[in-house]
Input
Amino acid sequence: MESDDVVLLADEAIALGAVHAGLGAAYGYPGTPSTEILEYLIRLYEAGKGPRAAWCANEKTAYEEALGASFAGRRVLVTMKHVGLNVAADPFVNSALVAIKGGLVLAVADDPGMHSSQDEQDSRYYAEFAMIPCLEPTDQTEAYEMAREAFDLSERFQVPVMIRITTRLAHSRAGVRTRLPRAGNSMEKSTDKAGWTLLPANARRRYERLCGIQAELEAWSTSSRWNAAEPSAAPRKADFAVVTGGLGRNYYEENLADFAESIGAEKLPPRLHVGAYPLPAAKLRELAAANRRILVIEEGAPLIEKALRGILPSGIEISGKLDGRLPRTGELNPDNVRAALGLAPRSSARLDAPPLPNRPPQLCQGCPHADSYAAVAKAVEGLPLSAIFADIGCYALGALPPFGLPEALVCMGASIGMAVGAAEAGYENVVGFIGDSTFLHSGVTPLIDAVSRNAPVTIVILDNSIVAMTGGQPTILPSSRLEEIVKGIGVDPAHVATIDASRAAAEKNVAIFRREIAHRGVSVVIARRECLEAIKAKKKKGAAARVAAEEACAPEEGE
Amino acid sequence: MTCDIVLAGVGGQGVLSITAIIAGAAMADGLKVRQSEVHGMAQRGGAVSAHLRISDSPIRGDLIPSGGADMILSMEPVESLRYLSFLKPEGVIVTAAESYVNIPDYPDLDPIVEAIGRLSRSRVVAAAELARKAGSSRAVNMVIVGAASSFIPVGRASIEESIARLFGAKDAGLVETNLKAFAAGRAAGAEGR
Output
């Protein structure tokens, strides 16, 4: 009987797979549902049991640091959430053109259904756009195995390789079978200047090379074990076939017993699961040759479905998210896949109960952000043409009751850029809220724009000393440097204020906000108070350290 | 054999730690487990749920289908009804009796508890009171685990070991209190079966 070695989140399984593939370094920026990949590696690094693993200022810098490690011959992992890849898109797309030396693997976590995101973009499109391979696991052991294989592939084809994972698997725990680790690569002096210097003349050659290996990549994908065809019990009798992608496979299999009962086991359709990209076109054509209709069940955007419309003859009916058989938005689940198979819903328990109130997430009791919002709300009361922008982080919850203050919230750093644009368009009292970590991620550059034209905006940096929303990672630089950074860019020191974001200081804070909002130029207010979760975590860590110290001192006991 | 459990509560109530205890015990019994968690924005004081799937054969996916859950295990009465569509017609609800009020429109509790009571196999457990009696009001979660335990195909000893593992690192007194809370919950859950 097989045995499961370790219990891991699929995120952690990717991390461990990378370590066992001889990982030399790992970089990333926290973002749900990707955060736990690098957290696992940082824990190993800090315990002296793993290679360097570090949070970076943003996804772009993380990707560039990973490129440097690959240049030096090391195997390197870079992690982010799907929208983080937008930030890293510049180095990512270009990295497909360089002569990857040490395997470079990008683990990106998509969030269909937007559990904790602003959109549900599908990273497989990025892999296709950059013309690189992509692997997508459907369980924790596959996550481990694919991470290992991705490094080999990257070195074999000299391109970066993407591992795409989605929320439900990223945050699901199960037993993982592991294998013996491989040793890491040694550092090597790069000798391939032309392969890494993307001047037009080199880049053209490299692009030709990338286009040239596409047929090889497709051949690899066609023979990959991750693209497994499952013939029908009665070949050529079925009038339709199923193609699954990502977690679509799990939900299909969840319903398989009922499906077999409904249509007869001998009529179950042949199936192809796609776990490796580029698409295995030959296998898809083969599947289509014997069937009139194909149902595509894939997690995310209808990427396979659209491709099939191009790959297959027009007489074949392609069904999925584009013809409404499956929902175009949100996640797949066992229920909507069940309906797509034509099965009646399972019956559920029923009760005549009063209607339930919603319970949306909210700022913690006593959160410093709440005090900052309350003070600004009071300061802008009665002011004409005010506009309030917010950014990505816990404080986004200020858009919900009881505050409902922010009027726009788009992406990392946009609070400052949008404030500048709105002020220059004619708004008079403009405030942008941004967290300390988000500011260091993407807020410094738009603040430079604001300073360059002395735009009349007030930027509130909510400094809680931590990346709270994603579980309390340290901010990349100590909070004490924020004021120096802001002044260093050139914000007039007379209009840089640091305040205590507490109820006790409310009156004073309202006065400061009023004064700075009235100022017809850039002002920055740093609202400082430590996150309550951070304080709790510190206490816990302190207690754990005390216990560890006591245990170390205690005499050993026999079992 | 499969046992699918939807765990419900409010962010910060410890849904994940309960899931971890039961999952750990199931694995010690040689069963397969998949345990789906909620992270990120949803954790902040909002309604949260986790799916725990236990089986003696490979488990297909991380999510429990509608009408597929054998049990809803809830830290809070209102939250126990939020995921009712997941419960099998013959499924069981086990919930703490105490409300968690962090919203302005929290409903009158009596009709809620009454509705839960109409489900033939339901247990509304005075978890806070039992935890206090066991020695710590913070052991509420262990009362809930105890109340659920007799419906779950996992050995009592394995769950107790799982609890001991979780708290053993902190101190032995804590283990004893939590095991007492577990036993009180188990007795309350088994009542009238």
Chain A touches chain B through 56 residues (CB under 8 Å). Confidence is low (pLDDT under 50) at residues 551-559 of chain A. Chain A has three domains: 6-212, 229-340, 368-535.
